[in-house]
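Appendix B, example 12.
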Amino acid sequence: MATCTSHSVEETMACAARLAETLRPNDVVALCGELGAGKTHFVKGLVAAGGSAEAVTSPTFTLVHEYRAGRVPVFHFDFYRIARAEELEQIGFEDFMDDNGISVIEWADRFPGLLPTRTRWIRITAGADDSRVIEERA
């Protein structure tokens, strides 16, 4: 997935499903974008593409949600309310990176130094016409 333009929640989820086809256990996906850009909808598409019908919600207050009903577990993080890296240490963040699941992190650009080099960076940008440009960055 290099770049994808979405005009609906369903299209955002379809873009995520295309990325999901390329993901393997222990991959990390870093999501960046403003509030309301569609990061959580993107995660919904990843989880659904992995074969899970679990309800996906933002882990803003719990920091991580685990979705284990699909082919590969998905660990969904949200760094929005994290003030210090030590908070991530307390929940065992590093352990998730090598737990044979796919780690997806909203607001990942708040702590980029904590992410492994294998991280795939995705930026979601809202357009003037309510579209979304979803692009993978190097």
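The CA atoms of residues 16 and 45 lie 5 Å apart. Strands lie at 3-6, 28-32, 64-67, 74-78, 102-106, 120-126, 132-137.
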